[in-house]
């Protein structure tokens, strides 16, 4: 697997109330990933980009919502994929960086 593909697997960290709760409680980070990404690719991408050791990866597909605009136009948001990455004990990803 080439490095270019690995660098394009992770789109962004997914920040929500649930992902924050999971990050605090069980050392898991949530990422928005490419729709065609597989678990081993996500595993390698996180380890390569953040210099951490990954324990497990769980993936789920999020279906896009149907949206209506005042009854006239109907639209649909696109489907996307979410990955829950559990890090090994002693490893952590700091998105903010040093404060101060």
What are the salient characteristics of this protein?
100 residues; alpha+beta; two-stranded antiparallel ribbon; 6 strands
Can you tell me about this structure?
- By secondary structure, this protein is an alpha+beta fold.
- It has a single domain, classed as 2-Layer Sandwich (Alpha-Beta Plaits), CATH 3.30.70.
- It contains 3 helices and 6 strands, in the order αβαβαββββ.
- The chain has helices at residues 3-9, 17-26, 39-50; strands at residues 10-13, 28-33, 54-62, 66-69, 73-76, 80-87.
- The chain has a 4-stranded antiparallel sheet. The chain has a two-stranded antiparallel ribbon with strand order 4-5.
- A hairpin with a 3-residue loop joins strand 4 (66-69) and strand 5 (73-76).
- The model has no long low-confidence stretch (mean pLDDT 90).
Can you tell me the CATH topology?
A: Alpha-Beta Plaits
CATH superfamily: RRM (RNA recognition motif) domain
Q: Count the E strands.
A: 6
Radius of gyration, CA atoms, in whole angstroms: 16 Å
Helix content: 25-40%
Structural class: alpha+beta
Beta content comes to 35-45%
Secondary structure elements and their pairing?
Elements lengths: L2 H7 E4 L3 H10 L1 E6 L5 H12 L3 E9 L3 E4 L3 E4 L3 E8 L13
Antiparallel strand pairs: 1-2, 2-6, 3-6, 4-5
């Amino acid at each position: 697997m080439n490095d270019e593909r690995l660098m394009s697997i992770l789109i962004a960290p997914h920040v929500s109330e649930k992902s924050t709760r999971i990050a605090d409680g069980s050392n898991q980070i949530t990422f928005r990933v490419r729709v065609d990404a597989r678990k081993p690719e996500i595993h390698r991408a996180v380890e390569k980009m953040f210099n951490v050791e990954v324990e497990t990866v769980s993936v789920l597909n999020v279906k896009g919502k149907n949206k209506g605009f005042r009854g006239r136009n109907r639209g649909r948001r696109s489907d996307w994929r979410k990955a829950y990455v559990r890090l090994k004990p002693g490893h952590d990803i700091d998105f903010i960086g040093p404060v101060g």
